[in-house]
Design a protein that fits this description.
The complex is a heterodimer of chains A (320) and B (424). Chain A contains 13 helices and 2 strands. Chain A is mainly α and 320 residues long. In chain A, helix 10 packs antiparallel against helix 13. The longest helix of chain A has 33 residues, at 86-118. The two termini of chain A are 49 Å apart. Chain B is of the alpha/beta class and 424 residues long. Helices cover 49% and strands 13% of the residues of chain B. Chain B is built from 19 helices and 10 strands. The chains are: A mainly alpha (320), B alpha/beta (424). At the A-B interface, helix 12 of A face helix 4, helix 5 and helix 18 of B.
């Protein structure tokens, strides 16, 4: 016999108010887990509409081609073309550099500033003002940040004013126009824009570490670096894994800054996978190919994130 | 205790109110005007007042049609159109560049205008010979205004500096040298080489026509890697290495170029006739003029155009066609040519250029006739995005010295030929 409301075996029994029992025939027709499904149904529906449908749609699109508005099945032909295209591998390489460099510098800067702000300052006002100033880049929308930095990088902009006018360089530096500097310049803007997220998250976690741990470490004779390595870092492990995973995912799919600053150029020096998808779908109008690249991107990102989490958690178990 | 009307009475009242609300519109509804949506980027370029008058005049003459303008910044237009095509969003009439047509045609978004033109022969005869933009044997759009590319300059600046506009390519270099002021970090011109369309039309294609070359021959063979093509690319490579253009060309886009020009940071440009109306959006007082036509090995010019198309998915094709005809009518085409200095793609508009004193327009008939045999009409390309991108990379590689011009052009030509052959 199935457990019903009021049944002592039901976990809900302890907290559920006394309910009017349903007639026996109805009870038999509605399994006891139906209520659970009913509660999660809105979320499942939401996920189906916003995640599952687009994914299925993109997969369907990628195994088809279109001519004159008529779609027809081509199997894995799009994938064959995409994987044989050196443009994809260049975009993948750029994306890997962009993601790894951005995440690493975000982490380093965010951690450094968080530690700095966590220290006792001689003036609380100054510390709060510094904290406000450091958070400022996060407040900018990506479009505004991109525009601002494109003006700073401009051949007639502030940075080049200093380079030419003050440092007497014969030519302005082509921050966004020289393939040697362009990707680094875009990464710098991304770092500037997003490090406060790390800083705030790490600072919050730092403030939650019990002071006893540090006191105990001090009693055991641990110096500053040792306390950081053996107390602070293990305590921050959870938040570091969470935010860096989030960062990897968002940075991997970044389009806005590349679009505003370089549109993938010069040449293809800053063309990331996400921008490649954007260009193929919305500028070239080749939806099936863009869908295939999107799926490649999804697979790479899933593998990358899985590997990243695995390495971090293993290292955490071993070292922390 | 409830003392008002009974619940049943209230329910009846609610029912009657809803029933009357539901039937009232049916009883009084009269057929409203047919709405057509026009997606384009011209409101500011043509001036909001000119644009509003254009629409108002049409609606006055055609009270049964309402035109809803969806104005979009030019850089976003291609994306918006492709998204509309993918998402079955309808724009009955839309502004379109040749480079966007192939993607839209693949998605079945573009109406073949041949049957409309065949039914309306009198109208078709009013268009210039190059107005039809064809791909795979179909007319997918009509050029709205024609675009030859040439050297334009800031008239006030040149007068003040007592500079004469160049009359040849050698003069052009001399003028750029004079405009380069190292002390003031000033340059004569900027080259937005991050934009494939710019590279292909303003720089390479223009010089190619002047070298007597072509992009594609009459048999559909890609020939821009000819000796003339190599000469054209080598010329630009040498020019780039003279350091006379604003640094950062490889990362520069159209918007930046326009800002440089309107802000007076550069005073010359190679562009189409629309550049004046675009620059006026930023500096209404700016005065631009075209230099007189010049020649290298030939006197040909590259001609492109911006145009309009109709959606194949439009539920109001007749109304859309009426609007499209109106845009090319004698009155509109002559008035717009005169008002905004854009040579409309109608015979009447081209005739109206004779004897004009407009500093941009007055040289355009000469561009067309100076060496008509060597003019290049920029073609509608299949897989245009891919081809233009391949060409841009080739041009950048050659200019930056990464590849020999011949090798770079051969590689791009191979990509082009593959796609052209597929499209056959």
């Amino acid at each position: 016999m199935k457990a019903a409301v009021g049944d002592s075996r039901s976990p809900a029994a302890a907290i559920a108010p006394a309910a009017v029992p349903l007639p026996g025939s109805v009870r038999r027709r509605i399994p006891r887990y139906a209520a659970g499904y009913a509660f999660v149904a809105p979320v499942l529906l939401y996920l189906a509409v916003t995640a599952l449908y687009p994914i299925v749609n993109v997969i369907t699109m990628s195994v088809n081609d279109v001519t004159g508005g008529r779609w027809y099945f081509v199997g894995l032909a799009q994938y064959g073309q995409v994987l044989g295209d050196p443009v994809l591998w260049n975009a993948l390489r750029n994306t890997a550099i962009f993601t790894v460099a951005s995440t690493a510098v975000h982490l380093t800067l965010g951690m450094s500033f968080a530690l700095l702000l966590h220290e006792v300052w001689f003036s609380r006002t100054l510390r709060n003002a510094t904290r406000g100033a450091l958070i400022m880049p996060w407040v900018f929308s990506t479009a505004a940040a991109g525009l601002m930095w494109s003006l700073l990088y401009h051949p007639f902009g502030l940075l080049n004013y200093v380079a030419v006018g003050v440092l007497h360089r014969p030519q302005p530096i082509e921050f966004l126009g020289d393939p040697r500097f362009a990707l680094a310049s875009v990464i710098a803007v991304n770092v500037w824009k997003s490090y406060p997220f790390y800083m705030v998250a790490i600072l919050g976690e730092l403030q939650a570490i019990p002071a006893d741990l540090f006191d105990a470490a001090k009693v055991d004779g641990a110096g500053g670096p040792q306390r950081f390595w053996y107390v602070t870092l293990p305590q921050l492990r959870g938040i570091l894994i969470a935010i860096s995973t989030l960062d990897v995912i968002t940075t991997f799919g970044h389009v806005d800054l590349v679009n505003i600053l370089t549109r993938g150029g010069p040449g293809r020096a800053t063309e990331t996978l996400a921008f490649h998808v954007y260009r193929t779908a919305l500028l070239d109008g080749n939806l099936p190919k863009a869908a295939a690249v999107s799926n490649v991107m999804l697979i790479v990102l899933t593998l990358f994130t899985w590997l990243y989490l695995r390495v971090l958690s293993r290292r955490g178990r071993e070292a922390w | 205790m409830w003392t008002g009307p009974s619940l049943r009475t209230a329910a009846w009242l609610v029912l009657v109110v809803f029933a009357s609300l539901g039937t009232a519109p049916l009883a009084v509804a009269a057929p409203g005007p047919t709405e057509i949506k026009w997606l384009e980027w011209w409101v500011n370029e043509w001036g909001p007042d000119n644009h509003a008058k254009l629409i108002a005049d049409f609606q006055r003459a055609n009270p049964s049609i309402k035109v809803t303008v969806v104005d979009t910044p030019y850089p976003d237009m291609a994306g918006k159109l492709n998204a509309a095509a993918a998402g079955n969003e309808n724009y009955d009439v839309f502004g379109v560049e040749g480079g966007w047509l192939s993607g839209l045609a693949k998605l079945g978004y573009v109406e073949n205008l041949d049957s409309w033109l065949a039914k309306d022969k009198a109208f078709a005869d009013t268009l210039t010979g190059t107005a039809r933009r064809r791909l795979s044997g179909k007319t997918l759009s009509l050029c709205l205004y024609l675009i030859p590319y040439h050297f334009a300059y800031n008239v006030d600046f040149f007068n003040k500096a007592q500079l004469k506009p160049p009359a040849s390519w050698d003069d052009f270099i001399q003028v750029e040298r004079r405009l380069r002021d190292k002390g003031a970090n000033r340059y004569g011109m900027s080259m937005p080489l991050s934009d494939g369309g710019f590279v292909l039309t303003r720089y390479f294609g223009y010089r190619l026509a002047q070298e007597g070359g072509q992009l594609i021959d009459d048999n559909g063979k890609v020939v821009f890697n000819s000796p003339q093509g190599v000469a054209a690319l080598t010329w630009w490579k040498n020019f780039y290495n003279m350091g006379l253009a604003v640094p950062g060309s490889m990362g520069e886009n159209q918007t930046q170029m326009l800002e440089y020009l309107a802000a007076g940071q550069v005073t010359t440009i190679i562009d189409g006739p629309f550049i004046w109306s675009k620059a006026k959006q930023i500096d209404p007082a700016i005065k631009l003029a075209y230099a007189p036509p010049w020649r290298a090995q030939s006197g040909g010019y590259l001609w492109s155009c911006s145009g309009v198309g109709m959606s194949a998915k439009s539920p109001n094709k007749d109304a859309a066609w009426r609007f499209l005809r109106y845009l090319y009518s004698r009155d509109v085409s002559v008035a717009m040519t005169k008002t905004i200095s854009l040579p409309w793609a109608t015979k009447a508009a081209m005739d109206s250029l004779k004897g004009t004193s407009d500093p941009i327009l007055h040289n355009i008939p000469l561009f067309a006739s100076q060496d008509a045999r060597h003019n290049i009409v920029y073609p509608v390309l299949p897989e245009a995005g891919k081809l233009i991108d391949a060409f841009k990379i080739a041009f950048q590689d050659a200019v930056a010295g990464k590849k020999d011009p011949k090798q770079a052009l051969d590689e791009a030509a191979a990509v082009w030929q593959t796609e052209l052959d597929k499209a056959k």
